[in-house]
Design goal:
Shape of chain B: globular
Helix content of chain B: 25-40%
Helix content of chain A: 25-40%
Chains: A alpha+beta (256), B alpha+beta (251), C alpha+beta (234)
Number of strands of chain B: 9
CATH topology of chain B: Ribosomal Protein S5, domain 2
Mean pLDDT of chain B: 91
Shape of chain A: elongated
CATH architecture of chain B: 2-Layer Sandwich
Radius of gyration of chain A: 19 Å
Order of helices and strands of chain A: HEEEEHEEHEEEEHEEH
Oligomer: heterotrimer
CATH architecture of chain A: 2-Layer Sandwich
Strand order of the largest sheet of chain B: 1-2-3-5-4
Order of helices and strands of chain B: EEEEHEHEEHEEHH
Mean pLDDT of chain A: 96
Largest sheet of chain A: 6 strands, mixed
CATH superfamily of chain A: GHMP Kinase, N-terminal domain
Low-confidence stretches of chain B: 236-251
Strand content of chain A: 25-35%
Radius of gyration of chain B: 20 Å
Chain lengths: 256, 251, 234
């Protein structure tokens, strides 16, 4: 880590400023675009500043897990494509991409975003599997929040393909939406020195002390958390970080 | 049952609508998007940069490394499992061979130029779209090249020789279908990619190659425009003559 | 018969035929194929008498002997430091070129330069295999203290520096920031946050408008205007 760069960023923070002119609690421009790829049953593109990700939903009929025979399944995958950053390499998922996938997955799952019972077709035999894949197009900081937002948007955009009891016809898409109950958004709050801030750039990500990702439902309930970064945080910090996350989550949900 | 009219109503020598744009991925050294019909390809170029592990380095010239990949949700039907397949490995390899002849990499011994091609949406012709996007991205990255590379697939559906088959034509049932992905160096007319599957006679093949060459010249025009548009402001003003009176030329 | 096939000062792409005839001579970015001169990269066509060349619009920094650049220490080896210079290749700073001081064998080299340090350094040699040697011996060459680092397009550096450093001096004077522009496109700045931000905005403005005539006057007006706003805000 570069101590001099860290010291310099801190000097700016003392004055409430960031390298790109934003305030500490300010997101870059956020945009959500629906239905960005035709062959997915649902999809969305999210841009946060220069960061860009695409999430796509595929729906398939599978055998339910033995311990939840009356429910459909959900799976979230994330790929940090080498196309999107000089720092990403081709190859199997690394810690960073697995963390993104699992944190997004937990947010959706624990928010009970989808009524998985309604995905059941034939108890113990057949149920819909919802598979979300997140792909990065340009990685310019805060991939986690972008990935979570894109996932929620793609789920909202999804329509079932027609199913005749035997095979799925992906060419015939119905008007039926996923049984969505509520959609969470995630906000990652960063701690650097005594300061907390949101929506880090790559430069800021390289010098952080700690981060806390908070997934929050539309009604303001916390549904998943993940602490990252090497420095420990206090109960007091958590309080401050969640407060900021909740305020920003409200702004982000409006984009959905 | 014959095939005398194309499913989407195109003429045999008519390409699907094309959109191309350069400089779409900020973190890359060069990048492009190439959309043909419903097939969309992104390409990003990184490098020349250090090549590791060291034993892969070539002390005489830079190395070109291509990776073709379909996003998991990009295909019609089932999800494409991430992590690459025999198919994607082979396509990566032929893409490399299609692009290498135009690149001048002598100035970059031991280094690598990485080309990453990603497809968010596919409807046949993906390797060709990937090559078209990659050629724009390589030029956008400022690399020294003899020419761009333009690529399209040609084929025969029943008795009709046609260019740029889509998935519905490629999988048309009841007649013989031949699919021939091609890539050309536009200036010289040399071929840098040729694959084929299906059945075709030699005369039809000759005719198909000629149609492919003409189509590639059309595609080359679109690639060229994408690159010029990216830097259009620089041209427009400089085209106005040398009225720079401020005296700050310091080249 | 010699003739230009595209107008002077237009943007051309690899493979584009720019001129015909043996009277024209191909230089940077142009190659000859029989009668034709052809572009071998993306660039702005410049015809100077019989000479035809291209000014690149993109691309990585190519290390040149004598260039003063800003680099970052990425590795500390047994006998020196490996430096990232925003190029296709990294550079090597040897113990001998690092300081006038005598460094004993086996000394802790991180005492001099350590991971993440930024330095102003000068290229002393580039081999045919693109091994880049640099030195810290010379006026102004030193380790940089706390500051902001931004990267600009290397082909825009001449415009950012300006004639005899006039452009960068103007930004320094207006903003009160210390600024070092490396030939490799890496820029170090140090000042008050608002002023630094203005300096960076100005750099970006030069990058995107360098081709529009009257650049110097426009940048001066912009800096005056923005500094007034800053002072009014105080």
């Amino acid at each position: 880590m570069n101590e001099l760069l860290r010291a310099h960023i801190l000097k700016w923070f003392e004055k409430g400023k960031r390298y790109d002119g934003r305030k500490l609690d300010e997101f870059r421009l956020v945009s959500v675009e629906y239905g960005v790829t035709k062959n997915a049953e649902g999809s969305a593109r999210v841009k946060i500043g220069d960061t860009e990700v695409i999430a796509g939903v595929k729906l398939a009929v599978e055998k339910p897990y033995p311990d939840t025979p009356k429910e459909g399944t959900l799976m979230v995958g994330a790929e940090l494509l080498p196309l999107s950053s000089p720092d990403f390499e081709a190859g199997p998922p690394n810690e960073e991409s697995i963390e993104i996938a699992r944190v997004v997955d937990r947010g959706i799952r624990e928010a009970k975003a989808i009524d998985t019972k309604k995905l059941c077709i034939d108890e113990g035999e057949k149920a819909w599997a919802v598979i979300v894949d997140i792909c990065t197009i340009n990685s310019a900081g805060n991939l986690l929040d972008a990935a979570a937002l894109a996932t929620s948007a793609a789920l909202r955009n999804a329509r079932f393909p027609s199913y005749n009891g035997k095979t799925v016809d992906y060419k015939k898409i119905t008007d039926n939406k996923l049984p969505i109950v509520r959609l969470p958004v995630s906000v990652t709050v960063i701690k650097l020195g005594d300061h907390i801030f949101v929506d880090p750039t790559v430069e800021e990500e390289n010098v952080i002390d700690a981060r806390l990702t908070v997934a929050i439902t539309e009604s303001g309930k916390i549904c998943a958390m993940q602490k990252g970064g090497n420095a420990p945080i206090t109960v007091d910090d958590i309080d401050r970080m969640i407060e900021l996350a909740a305020a920003k989550a409200g702004e982000l949900s409006k984009k959905l | 049952m014959g095939y005398d009219k194309r499913i989407d109503g195109r003429r045999p020598d008519e390409l699907r609508p094309i959109v191309a744009k350069a400089g779409v991925i900020k973190r890359a050294d060069g990048s492009a998007m190439f959309k043909i019909g419903n097939t969309v390809a992104y390409a990003a170029v990184y490098g020349p940069r250090d090549l590791f592990p060291r034993f892969l380095q070539d002390p005489q010239r830079g190395t070109l490394r291509c990776r073709y990949n379909m996003m998991p949700f990009s295909g019609a039907g089932d999800r494409v499992k991430p992590g690459g397949s025999r198919r994607s490995k082979e396509i990566s390899m032929v893409t490399e061979k299609a692009l290498l002849p135009v690149l001048n990499l002598e100035d970059f011994p031991n280094a690598v130029v990485d080309v990453f091609i990603e497809l968010p949406q596919t409807d046949a012709g993906t390797r060709c779209a990937g090559i078209c996007a990659a050629a724009i991205a390589l030029a956008d990255a400022g690399l020294s090249m003899k020419d761009l590379v333009s690529s399209v697939s040609v084929g025969k559906v029943g008795d009709m020789i046609a260019i740029d088959l889509d998935y519905a034509e490629e999988s048309y049932e009841g007649v013989d279908v031949a699919d021939i992905p091609l890539a050309f160096i536009p200036r010289t007319g040399q071929i840098t990619l040729l694959q084929m599957d299906g059945l075709i006679d030699r005369d039809s093949l000759k005719k198909a190659l000629e149609m492919g060459r003409k189509a590639c010249l059309q595609i080359y025009g679109i690639q060229k425009k994408a690159l010029k548009d990216r830097f259009a402001s620089a041209a427009a003003v400089n085209g106005n003559g040398n009225s720079d009176g401020s005296g700050d030329k310091n080249e | 018969m010699a003739e230009l096939l595209v107008p002077d000062k237009s943007i051309v792409v690899p493979g584009e035929e720019v001129a015909a005839g043996m009277d024209f001579l191909p230089t940077e970015g142009i190659y000859r194929d029989g009668e034709k001169l052809v572009a071998s990269r993306l660039g702005l066509l410049v015809v100077d008498g019989r000479l035809v060349k291209l000014i690149p619009l993109s691309g990585k920094y190519l290390p040149k002997r004598g260039d003063v650049i800003v680099g970052k220490v990425i590795d500390v080896a047994i006998s020196g430091w490996r430096i990232d210079i925003n190029s296709a290749y990294t550079a090597m700073l040897s113990m001998k070129e690092a300081t006038a001081e005598f460094i004993a064998r086996g000394a802790d080299l991180t005492r001099y330069f350590t991971f993440g340090d930024y330095i102003v350094t000068k290229i002393v040699n580039v081999t045919s295999q693109n091994l880049v040697d640099i030195t810290m011996k010379g006026p102004g060459l030193r380790k940089l203290s706390e500051g902001m680092i931004v990267t600009v397009a290397p082909n825009k550096v001449p415009r950012i520096i300006g004639k005899q450093g006039s452009m960068v001096s103007m930004i320094k004077d207006a903003t009160g920031c210390k600024i070092i522009v490396g030939q490799n496109g890496v820029v170090w700045l140090q000042g008050e946050p608002e002023q630094e931000l203005l300096a960076v905005t100005t750099l970006r403005k030069i990058e995107s408008e360098s081709h529009i005539s009257g650049l110097t006057d426009r940048i001066k007006a912009f800096l005056d205007e923005e500094m007034k706003k800053l002072q009014a805000g105080k």
